[in-house]
Design the sequence.
């Protein structure tokens, strides 16, 4: 192990030194395969988003077993809400995770697009599929349409998206029913994507940024959590547990990065304490942006351009220290096989999002020639990259089960994922309508899914590295867009550097 990977001061007890080194060795020197084709995994991770598309599919659609679906979304509300992504294995369009997915895809392009090679154009298309929908959802001033489809009727059926006959009810937030969380995340997605399209399509970029400004102003002016007024529709599926304050800072951070306007810098500094930037610093996902806020803003501090953001760098350093193996926070554990594990379902969402931040921050540190100082150790950018790579390698097959958790990658991967379209016969094979309850036999079947949802990364194994390859175990076997989105950036980097 390179001496610059981890520095342990001499005053640490022998026990903690030994524990930390053993855990580090198990993570970094764990028996691994001959190597991974990161570019192939990158290509597949992006292809997955085509399998999640809703609406009218384009002529260049590559996953051919999918067909047009939900072509009348928004009709009952007098708006066009076609397009966008199904977030997981169901047929609902949830705006909160869709916006987060779009933000992370855009961040992946911003930080790692130069290493994506020929897959860059496909990633940019994936971003635009999300932003085209978010523009529709925010077309009416002071209104954001945040969901299409009744989740209870949908979850009571096992239907292909092409056959949907359940309610496509439309849910929105407005001045009387605020949702600063989902609106703040939507503003972040639009602002981040405006950077992606700044040179590629300047007019589209300006449209995205102007819309982000308007949506953020609405989110900030009418504060509240969207699950307070939409609880029956969004809970327990994408209920806001963490509060809306972090999304306001997150939206402001991306608007500052995209526009360079002083008003957003002042907003961030003025509201840092009020909006609790230092809370739950080791969380990052669709409902909690704290670690992401601190890492994103810290880049400017490390570049020597923003001393007024110094506290965010301190928070980012604390985030890194909280997830180091052997020294990690009680809320962040490692499985015996070396996988980051946090309580709750769909653990891979934590693995990919936290690993993305490890890699992004390591790059920022490298350019500034800095390390992260912790109480009992300091971690170099090299070590952070190795820790992130270890997580990616675990996903791709370097784990106790020697199973890739990405569908279609490697010799062994999940065969019975919790995904309606993948598990039911395709329209091409079975043109006749398959009704709500008629799909149950496919859900309960022990047979592998007939349609390969290439690139889908499932929720993953439990804390003991065990994985039931079974549709009913949805927390382990269901893929989501917000698992894949941060993985795109990770794979792009590793495809170019390993």
Sequence:
């Amino acid at each position: 192990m390179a001496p610059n990977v981890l520095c342990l001061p001499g005053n640490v007890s022998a026990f903690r030194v030994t524990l930390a080194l053993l855990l580090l060795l198990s993570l970094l020197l764990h028996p691994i395969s001959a190597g991974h084709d990161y570019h192939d995994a990158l290509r597949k991770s992006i292809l997955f988003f085509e399998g999640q598309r809703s609406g009218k599919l384009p002529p260049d659609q590559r996953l051919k077993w999918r067909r047009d679906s939900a072509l009348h979304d928004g009709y009952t509300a007098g708006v066009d809400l076609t397009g966008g992504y199904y977030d997981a294995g169901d047929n609902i369009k949830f705006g909160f995770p869709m916006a987060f997915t779009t933000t992370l895809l855009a961040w992946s392009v911003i930080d790692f697009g130069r290493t994506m090679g020929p897959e860059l154009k496909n990633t940019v298309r994936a971003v635009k599929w999300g932003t085209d929908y978010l523009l529709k959802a925010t077309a009416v001033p002071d209104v954001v349409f945040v969901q299409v489809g009744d989740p209870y009727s949908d979850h009571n059926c096992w239907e292909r998206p092409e056959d949907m006959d359940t309610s496509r009810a439309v849910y929105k937030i407005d001045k009387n029913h605020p949702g600063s969380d989902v609106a703040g995340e939507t503003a972040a997605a639009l602002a981040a994507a405006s950077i992606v399209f700044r040179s590629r399509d300047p007019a589209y970029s300006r449209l995205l940024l102007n819309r982000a400004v308007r949506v953020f102003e609405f989110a900030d002016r009418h504060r509240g959590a969207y699950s307070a007024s939409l609880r029956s529709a969004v809970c327990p599926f994408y209920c806001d547990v963490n509060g809306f304050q972090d999304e306001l800072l997150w939206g402001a951070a991306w608007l500052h990065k995209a526009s360079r306007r002083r008003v957003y810098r002042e907003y961030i500094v003025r509201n840092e304490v009020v909006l609790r930037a230092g809370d739950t610093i080791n969380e990052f996902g669709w409902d909690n942006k704290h670690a992401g806020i601190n890492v994103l803003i810290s880049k400017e501090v490390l570049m020597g351009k923003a001393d007024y953001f110094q506290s965010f760098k301190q928070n980012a350093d604390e985030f890194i220290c909280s997830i180091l193996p052997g020294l990690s926070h009680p809320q962040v554990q490692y499985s015996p096989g070396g996988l980051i594990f946090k309580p709750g379902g769909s653990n891979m969402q934590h693995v990919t999002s936290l690993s993305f931040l490890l890699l992004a921050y390591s790059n920022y540190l490298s350019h500034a020639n800095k390390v992260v100082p912790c109480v009992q150790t300091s971690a170099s950018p090299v070590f952070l990259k190795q820790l992130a790579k270890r997580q990616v390698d675990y996903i791709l097959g370097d784990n106790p089960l020697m199973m890739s958790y990405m569908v279609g990658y490697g010799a062994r991967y999940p065969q019975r994922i919790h995904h309606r379209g993948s598990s039911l016969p395709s329209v091409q094979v079975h043109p006749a309508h398959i009704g709500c309850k008629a799909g149950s036999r496919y859900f309960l079947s022990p047979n592998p899914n007939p349609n390969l949802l290439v690139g889908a990364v499932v929720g993953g194994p439990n804390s003991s590295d065990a994985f039931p390859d079974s549709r009913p175990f949805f927390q382990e076997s269901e893929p989501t867009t917000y698992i894949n989105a941060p993985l795109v950036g990770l794979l792009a980097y590793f495809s170019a550097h390993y």
